[in-house]
Amino acid sequence: MKKIAIIGGGASGLAAAIEALRLSKKRNIPVSVTIYEKLPRICKKILVTGNGRCNLCNADIKTEHYRGDKSLISAVIDSGFSDTLSFFNSLGLLLKQESGRVYPKSGNASSAADALRFMALSLGCKVFSDTEINKIEKRENGFLLNDKYAADAVILAGGGAAAPYCGTDGNGYTLLRSLEHRVTEVRPALVPVKCEDLFFKSLKGIRADAIATLFCNSEKLYEEMGEVQFTEYGLSGIPILNMSGLIDMDEKLKYRITLDLCPDMDYNSLKEFLETAFSRGKPTAADVLTGIIPKRLGEVLLKRIDISPLETPNNITSDAIAKITNIIKCFDASVIATTGFKNAQVTAGGLSAEEIELSTLCSKHIDGLYICGELLDAYGICGGYNLHFAWTSGRIAGYSAALKVTE
Ligand SMILES: Cc1cc2nc3c(=O)[nH]c(=O)nc-3n(C[C@H](O)[C@H](O)[C@H](O)COP(=O)(O)OP(=O)(O)OC[C@H]3O[C@@H](n4cnc5c(N)ncnc54)[C@H](O)[C@@H]3O)c2cc1C
Description:
CATH topology of the largest domain: FAD/NAD(P)-binding domain
Bound molecules: flavin-adenine dinucleotide
């Protein structure tokens, strides 16, 4: 019986195993599929996705929501949303949508992990847990892993370098390089950022709706409206996570993020609003700002422009109101760095699309070696796009590997 070895029991590895075994059953040619997983259990990362709810897909799948190699991305996500829905339907997992984001109906990530695990095992997939693969040797008739596990085809599904506590420490890239594959520069993405400002500590925990804009030197790179979270070291929240992968910590590049903390009003309307508000006789300047932004944030903004939060509103001049309007419309923070792979959800960069056949995800250098998931040079913004990419690329790799060994 031909053997397929899958390195990594995460999202793409499980999808690959299921697809490979389904094809072998359909063709009535038995194939042995084994997942080698370095952690004691498979599916660990799936359990922490979507804050434990697993945002596994999105109704709006399109290339604009992804970054990396566009030809690779369109080849993988081509089949789209409905294909992922049918895949989970075939695993007996009911789904629900919230503003386009798709979750297991149970509201629990473990339902998705269980559905994948049960289907893979019931189709006959074997799992070797606590087994890290650190050597892939290509032989004349197939592969030898760690000098002892033979396989006719190998699917590398070891994930990227983000969230190393889930088993993903970037060793997949090392394996790819050891097999002479080119990996583009990798960096953390969907990650909070550290900013230069003495005031961040006092803003910890505050959330505010804002338009966040990322600049590199003076070039505008990205803008998104949404809820921004202040942390003790800087900024987080969906707009910040979505821009973080664009931050390349090259010393010559200076990044800054501006926040428009009153996106519903233009500068003049806000200034007019503030002029009236300051004439209404609230006890302090900080109290006036509570009508627009959270109190602690208002206090910090006033301090940043050298106005005491305790100042009597009547003493605030028209020039001061202009300054307050400015800082609300354009709160500015210099980026020091991202908070690194430890806090990142995904990896930007990865195996260059030039190294693989896009229709099968088979290596162009090593026949029988397939690569899927986050190891590839592609990642999506928040919203279920990364898991969609993992399932879809895993299924392409699993199907192609099974087709090859059952030829
Ligand atoms: C906190 C968090 C929340 C997230 N939330 C979402 C979300 O809601 N929606 C979304 O779309 N995406 C989300 N993501 C991203 C998503 O989980 C990943 O993009 C996706 O899991 C990648 O799938 P993968 O199969 O490539 O790798 P992974 O799922 O990371 O699996 C790789 C597996 O390979 C194993 N492994 C690695 N190297 C070896 C080796 N040498 N030998 C054996 N085993 C190995 C690892 O232990 C791991 O189990 C989140 C990520 C994090 C960290």
